Amino acid sequence: MFLSTCFKKFLQPRALFLGLIVFSVSAAHGRAVTYGNLSVGKFYNVSRAPHSSYPDRWANDWCSGAKLTDEDTGIAWPLDQWVGWYDEGVYSLDIILDLGKVYEVDKLRIRLSSRQQYGIEFADSVQFYTRSDTSEQWQAYGSAVTNLEESYSYQAQWVEQQAGTVNARYIKYELISPESAHMFISEIEAWGNIANSWKHVPDWGCYHGAYASNTNYWMSLGTFENQIQKQSSITLWYASMGASNFKDYLGSLWKSQYGLTYNLDYSGARLLEVGWEPQANITAEDIAGGYYDQYFETFFTESIDYANRNGNTDPVWLRPMSEMNGGWTFPPNAAAWGGDHLNFRRAWRRMFNIAEQVGTEPHHIFVWSPNGYTYSSLHMPDNYYPGDQYVDWLGISIYPQGESPYPEDILTGTAGPGSFDFYGTYGYKPIIISEGAYRLDSGIDGIEWINQWFDLPYNYPMIKALVWFYIHDSETNSLVTEPYMSLYRRRLAEPYYLTQSVAGVVDLDRDGFVNLCDYEGLAGNWGGNISNLAGDITGNNTVNIEDLLIFSEYWLKNL
Length: 559
Prior knowledge:
Elements: H1 5-11, E1 33-37, E2 43-46, E3 83-86, E4 92-114, E5 125-131, E6 139-146, E7 155-161, E8 166-176, E9 182-195, E10 207-212, H2 221-228, E11 234-240, H3 246-255, H4 258-261, E12 271-277, H5 284-288, H6 293-310, E13 316-320, H7 341-357, E14 364-368, E15 393-398, H8 407-412, H9 422-426, E16 431-436, H10 446-459, E17 463-470, H11 484-492, H12 520-523, H13 530-534, H14 545-557
Parallel strand pairs: 10-11, 10-17, 11-12, 12-13, 13-14, 14-15, 15-16, 16-17
Antiparallel strand pairs: 1-9, 2-4, 3-9, 4-7, 4-8, 4-9, 5-6, 5-8
GO biological process, one term: polysaccharide catabolic process
Family: Belongs to the glycosyl hydrolase 26 family.
Organism: Limihaloglobus sulfuriphilus
């Protein structure tokens, strides 16, 4: 088959896949593998209930409780963070941990206590098991651990096995409890490799868009795009957790976007980033304790069901509980999800786990997004990070803040005492500037600020999306003021800023558009009439996801 020189130039470094999307770009080279505690925050179930005096807490439909994976290993006394069992004639106890997906596991451990003075003893034996799927038989991981040395006074001990690397989603901790004594457990752990997700990341280029309030027409996304003279590939909209469900609100917004676009075709053209915020006065501890469990289940189920029924293959981008390190999200403010490191991490993990349990996590992109500037050293962003297995993209808000309030300084932690080296810490994951804008009242050089904004994806290649906060106030009205609008428009015209929301589809000529021009080299072999072959379903002379699937299938058959 003949391929034009131009086509070969762009195809050569990319991989060709046979699968759901037949012709695609491999972005897998960007996936980082990290190592950590896979089990932290994960759901588990126990074979028998603990003693009523030493219960677990925060159970729901998918788990027996939360204490055994909550990061708190407990202290000698009181035993609030320990879960206790008494033999009561039944000596075996199974704890089955669900990691949510298959991981490479190389270490398992459980923390037990002994205090014979109070009738508390170690388990008589501990055996670990693993399996990848519920249809498989349990496989022993290492040998049973027995004969743990008891202590009259308080002693806590990790029982651990490192017996090589296995692929596992489910871990079973099998314990034989001591006769006529209490057995206490504070934490279970599974350690291993985390293959960081790489969802909807453009192989080349950067998404761009805005939060465009529709309070007035001139605040709509349509008006924004008319001003910038380029179609957005992503847009931000805020939604309250529990105020309405996906079907009644975000589903229709995702499909038609009348409120945002005034009849611009949204579905399949622009990604939707949801700024997902708890209702007033709901704290991180409330969410960690299950306040939103039913809502999360409904939202996640309806979102993927809605996508399937309406043919929208784009993921739902979720940016929950953002700017948790900014004082405006601390109680007693109405926005009260910040200010509590431990329970924020617990709340995030619980939300993510529910998405896994209902089977919709692969169809959502979870964006963990702190503010770029922290007003207290106690609340630096890393204190709130839930773990690599719980985050798909990293986000950050960038506004003129700090002693050197320019985008690059804020991103790299050189903006002053409240800044944090965000890129140096998290630059192994795809990054979105979740929101940001130049402030006219900041007193700094706006030309330099906007130029740095657009330079970020070139200088820091893991930045794959920029979202401008476009609402008429002192933060953002720079875009209705010259010379800032002209500069913004000129920089945005660069091909690197994508007009399409597709990822893994080749922008062969790298002009910022995925369209018919990219496939001229292929079409030439069939007389140049690419529309007949690619299946221009919409008839708008633009190749979209559906068109590319049909065309690539035809192309593969004719190799």
